[in-house]
Design a protein that fits this description.
about 45 residues, 2 helices, about 50% helix
Amino acid sequence: MHLLEINTIPGMTKTSITPRAALAAGFEFGDFLDTLIATALKED
């Protein structure tokens, strides 16, 4: 697991670090959000 930042409300604008980091990791912003939501809803 990799963490970018510990923040309960990360910035989600085009100039925020979270979407830019996702893009650098190969995720388009919409795909990143889909993955984020799916991970949050996943039950272990």
